[in-house]
Amino acid sequence: MKKPAPTLSHLDAEGRPGMVDVGSKSPTARTARAEAIVDFTPALARALRRTGRSAKGNVLDTARVAGVLAAKKTAELIPLCHSLPLDHVDVQGHWKGSSLVLTSTASCRGATGVEMEALTAVGLAALTVYDMCKAVDKGLVIRAIRLLEKTGGKSGTFRAEK
Amino acid sequence: MKKPAPTLSHLDAEGRPGMVDVGSKSPTARTARAEAIVDFTPALARALRRTGRSAKGNVLDTARVAGVLAAKKTAELIPLCHSLPLDHVDVQGHWKGSSLVLTSTASCRGATGVEMEALTAVGLAALTVYDMCKAVDKGLVIRAIRLLEKTGGKSGTFRAEK
Amino acid sequence: MKKPAPTLSHLDAEGRPGMVDVGSKSPTARTARAEAIVDFTPALARALRRTGRSAKGNVLDTARVAGVLAAKKTAELIPLCHSLPLDHVDVQGHWKGSSLVLTSTASCRGATGVEMEALTAVGLAALTVYDMCKAVDKGLVIRAIRLLEKTGGKSGTFRAEK
Amino acid sequence: MKKPAPTLSHLDAEGRPGMVDVGSKSPTARTARAEAIVDFTPALARALRRTGRSAKGNVLDTARVAGVLAAKKTAELIPLCHSLPLDHVDVQGHWKGSSLVLTSTASCRGATGVEMEALTAVGLAALTVYDMCKAVDKGLVIRAIRLLEKTGGKSGTFRAEK
Amino acid sequence: MKKPAPTLSHLDAEGRPGMVDVGSKSPTARTARAEAIVDFTPALARALRRTGRSAKGNVLDTARVAGVLAAKKTAELIPLCHSLPLDHVDVQGHWKGSSLVLTSTASCRGATGVEMEALTAVGLAALTVYDMCKAVDKGLVIRAIRLLEKTGGKSGTFRAEK
Amino acid sequence: MKKPAPTLSHLDAEGRPGMVDVGSKSPTARTARAEAIVDFTPALARALRRTGRSAKGNVLDTARVAGVLAAKKTAELIPLCHSLPLDHVDVQGHWKGSSLVLTSTASCRGATGVEMEALTAVGLAALTVYDMCKAVDKGLVIRAIRLLEKTGGKSGTFRAEK
């Protein structure tokens, strides 16, 4: 027996895109965490790591600032997103072999979730890393931008599979 | 014998991030193509494809518009990017099994390349697809945002490996 | 006997423009509906309608996305407007002879009304329609951008005359 | 015999919206003029005019600044517009009975026209006038936003009919 | 005996910049006042003052509108600032000899203070004054951008020394 | 004998603000340098300097990124400024006693000067420094935002007095 097709909440009866009306939802505490992974060649990863804290810190810090600023612009970038009063957003990075793993956390007290803010933060942080390294290697790949976790709201907690 | 470490053009002598000065470069024709792949579960991919042109077209069209608008904001989002007068930017999508493949092309006549515009276009298009489908599946993964090709400028043509 | 002149709340004692202070107002539910009408030549209206759902849908869908995005930027565009946390904004369109009637609805729970958000949504949606059709007819006229209705707030309900 | 349907340059072969590629066009001098008319009740028009230069000047000046700023954001607001390096943009206003007539001029040396900049300028100026007067009269109507003239480019000069 | 070094709340344990998490703070009424002083040459100050209300009013009014708009963009301009729902923001100006003193007030009901909004308002108003006068005198100096007062929040009231 | 009053190029015949029309100017190489000075208490200056490169570098680096991003938004912030295609913009900082001296350079090939870009860069960098240090000392004062030098264009070279 076939499962019923999932429905796509952003499409109205005639298939036209539209914002979800959150007017009947009360603000509640919400969080989200997301991740983006940038794969470097081993040589470039070594170079970035070897130059030590200041240089590496600077690529990462610029990317982190870009991510925080982008999160605050999510509603301007994602057409059907609501503006949310973020309580906090942060981007961190750590190395895993030749890959730079960027993770974000976002939180708000709002009527809808902060998943897109967390995802936009890591997405733009990753693009900024690409921009700062592309003179050396245009072959860098951003992979696995994904939601790690969200809490709060009617749909409750989500955790990505390992 | 060890190869010399690649240098990172965006870092100055003290390791501080900074914009590249393009004042001595003449404007030349430049293009870039980039790609982002969004992996769906087979059930959601079927649902999106089954609802046919209007529904699928609408998710994709909204994402395409988001991508074009984002490309025009690249310099506002990527801290060390230059503003470029884009001649054209476009985002297209096609299905490959349960994956939606978004590709962008960007072109300008400018003193620096349009790689970041092309990458930003597909990155935001992919995040918009996620936003429009997340009510059904928060486990969607954006993978492989990468530059496919660039032409023009001193560094010439780049093509990604298959 | 002459009626006293109406006063213009945005002008202070010296006639200088300024924002209204809403600090003493409590957030309440507010809605607004607005309308913009784009007049086409009969031939262009027929062409747009004849190409059927996908083509017409696309001009309209692009305009609707532009309207939703513009509504979220109202406070950035209208100098003395407050930023409002929109619960919902939507733009719809229907044909009335050779005219495309765009209507918007906006709602929020805020200390001031959402009239400008609704008006900005249809205004920019109409400008987007113009942009997408101007290669065929630069003589298109946008007429009758107006508020249809607002509810909520101290001044209560307003309904435009027919 | 039926005339062939006009074609809509922004729709590609499959009816999807897209930017026009201007990469093969050389920059040339271009101008555009547009108009928006705001209809007041006679009482409000009298009040605005009677308060004399400073008050009237202030409503108009705020609207003019809003229009100039909006023109510079056209490419951010109209999805398929190109960014253009404006040489000049200006908004003026004069009274015609109870109607405030706002006119804009825009010019650039670019590969595509400045019609949308001129129209966006008067459109946002008119919305700003509405915002500043709506406490007195929510029934104000913006009518007849239209292009008055454009010059330059392949399609040459356009002048609106009287 | 040496006083302990002040700690800088925006730096995390590793010295990386980050936003302050305000998720545990309740919204309370907050205000801030700031000041910027623009020093003119006596001749230019006289010219600006002599041309009377309309001309002087216009430089100042344009600067005031620029300041209000900038205050609403504070979170977009200052990387680690939170978006705040401003209840009110205003910029005023008065002459003190050859100096134009710009003062701003900002207020909100939020989980963090509005100091940066008040400072950004006067900062951009002062830069706008510079822009409008620089054809006459590029030697204008903006001096003493500073917070005059803030109220509300855990740290209570601050008043600048005379 | 009285010198004639300087004229203010941004005011038209009726004293209304307006953009300068640069349509008859050819693009030429232009540069500008500006400066902002942030005065700290000696204790806070010592703390910032003592924490060494990473902490100081981070406050400064965040401010530098904020300054570069702000320069690219100058035309959006200063109402009567033209959009300019910046070839380069940079913000640097050094200590002079208890004062942090921020200097910017901006350059473009355009029809009008980059003074406002250089000034906006240091202005926002200074406000960002304030934001990052205000938890420790709200009494920080930004003083002496001024143009140091500009080259290019009809008015030629300007150098600030010492």
The helix fraction of chain A, in percent, is 25-40%
What structural class do the secondary elements of chain A suggest? Answer: alpha+beta
Gap between N and C termini of chain A, in Å? 29 Å
CATH superfamily of chain A: Molybdopterin cofactor biosynthesis C (MoaC) domain
**Biggest sheet of chain A, in brief?**
5 strands, antiparallel
Number of H- or I-type helical stretches of chain A: 4
Q: Tell me the radius of gyration of chain A.
A: 18 Å
Assembly classification: homohexamer
Q: Report the portion of residues of chain A in β strands.
A: 25-35%
| Average pLDDT level of chain A | 87
The strand order across the widest sheet of chain A is 2-3-1-4-5
Number of domains of chain A: 1
What is the CATH-assigned architecture of chain A?
A: 2-Layer Sandwich
Shape of chain A: elongated
Keywords:
homohexamer, 162 residues, alpha+beta, Alpha-Beta Plaits, 5-stranded antiparallel beta sheet, 5 strands
Protein model, in words:
The structure is a homohexamer of 162-residue chains. With 162 residues, chain A is an alpha+beta fold. Chain A has one domain: Alpha-Beta Plaits. Helices cover 33% and strands 30% of the residues of chain A. Chain A has a five-stranded antiparallel beta sheet with strand order 2-3-1-4-5, with helices on one face. In chain A, a hairpin with a 6-residue loop joins strand 4 and strand 5. Chains A and B meet through helix 1, helix 2, helix 4 and strand 4 of A and helix 1, helix 2, helix 4 and strand 4 of B.
